Amino acid sequence: MYMPFTRAPAFDSAYETTPFVSFLISTTMFSSFFSAQDPTAPNFRPVASNVEPTELLGELEQRDTEWACAGGINTETQIFYTLADDGTSFWCQVIHSSVGLWYPQIQFTCKVFNPKTGEHIWKSVNVSNFVTPPPGLDKRSSKSDQFSITYKAASPDSDFPESYTINANLGQDLQIALVTSRPAAAHGFKLGKGPQGGYSYFGPDKEKPEGYVVHRFWPRYQASGHVIVNGAAREISGPGMFVHAIQGMRPDVVAQAWNFAHFQSNALGGVSAIQMEFTTQPSHGRNGAGSGGVVVNVGSILLGGQLASVTAETRWPDDKAAEGSVVSRAQHLNPEKDPDTSYGKPSEILYTWKAPSIVADAPGEVSGELKVDLGSVQAPKGLIEKVDVLGEIPYVAKMAVNYVAGTKPFIYQWVNPATLTVTGPDALAPGLSAGVPIEGTLYNEATFIS
């Protein structure tokens, strides 16, 4: 995620975007002008501010996953990440980008990667006649000439109370027919309760922010359907996660780096662990410009098919305090300079989670740890690709983006077998108090922007 996560007009749709690239390209050529303020006043309020450890879970309301389609500089996306039972990594997304006075740009993108065969399919198309809500539906659904995504609610006592049906015709070479269904106990969430839950705000005035970032999650769904490639149907069946995200400002102003982790396993009746993390630019922190580099992380652990904990952590660059009662972080280990990108590619990443259980009859602490081996620059493990964002857009646009933003973004994407070790109340799973290793699959991204 992510996030890390379309193009400005006149950008050729043949060029690749990813969930993050889509955010970056569409808005990075524009800037905002803000009124003068106390230069030492806090100008960033992370999502976990003033949220107690027992109040991290924010239940999703209908409006949380409705399309906002806001004007100004806004990029909004729905992303469906699936880790199929046969090892295939599949994701698809819709991106709605507003960039100043231009008409919104809407894209549908998808990527299929099979680590066993090396098959790598990428598709990104500009869509026409985008509508939300479609006739007879609400704004959780959308459609265009090229796709339809239909939200459906079942009875509250159903095993799968809500779902999305995705149908897309992206050309003669690629079509998608997929249903993603949320299990009843795998509750969707945002960080914090109420209408402001999930939001990080930028700017000195929270009531009139310069910008914001917000994420809403389904930590686990069950996908079933097909991807049809050149007339041949490939089954897609397995668990996944859904995120609805909005960046209400230029992405290069939001963050200098992102981390995203998505782990799924069918063990213990269904396990998932997710994280979305970003690090602010130096311009935004608790003492104004120059106090940035704030690390914001939101995550969750799902055990036995039910959401067990929600995690969130803010790490301020000037605060060296020990870990608190809630931990949510991604740590790059043994970085090695990559001559292809000039960034320090991690050889390993350690993801950690710790928070109170949200399951009423299983009180206690739930913690998790996952370390993934990503190999070296010369001998990578699980690398799908290194996406050179500026290399994927036309030369003129690249010069404009590089000049205005001063960025050189790259995105590393991996998929690997992984082991998540979880500790928690035995009421959640037998033997959990002693720690249980869970085998599964991890899709993760590391994004470097500047």
Explain briefly what this protein structure is:
The chain has one domain: Beta Barrel (AttH-like fold).
Describe the structure.
Pfam families: Svf1, Svf1_C. This protein is mostly beta strands and 450 residues long. The protein has one domain: AttH-like fold, CATH 2.40.370.10. The protein contains three helices and 26 strands. The longest helix has 11 residues, at 395-405. The two termini are 17 Å apart. Residues 1-17, 19-35 and 394-404 have low confidence and may be disordered.
Domain count = 1
- Let me know the CATH homologous superfamily: AttH-like domain
Average of the residue pLDDT scores: 88
Computed CA radius of gyration, to the nearest angstrom: 21 Å
Give the uncertain stretches in residue-range form. Answer: 1-17, 19-35, 394-404
Largest sheet report: 12 strands, antiparallel
CATH topology: AttH-like fold
Strand content: over 45%
Form type: globular
Separation of termini? 17 Å
How many extended strands? Answer: 26
Number of helices: 3
Order of helices and strands: HEEEEEEEEEEEEEEHEEEEEEEEEEHEE
Percent of residues in helices comes to: under 10%
Structure classification = mainly beta
- Proper CATH architecture: Beta Barrel
**CATH domain class:** Mainly Beta
Q: What is this structure's SSE topology?
A:
Blueprint: H1 19-27, E1 44-45, E2 57-59, E3 73-83, E4 89-99, E5 105-113, E6 120-126, E7 142-143, E8 147-153, E9 162-169, E10 174-182, E11 189-191, E12 199-202, E13 211-229, E14 232-247, H2 251-254, E15 257-265, E16 271-279, E17 295-303, E18 306-315, E19 327-333, E20 336-337, E21 344-345, E22 348-356, E23 365-373, E24 383-388, H3 395-405, E25 410-423, E26 436-448
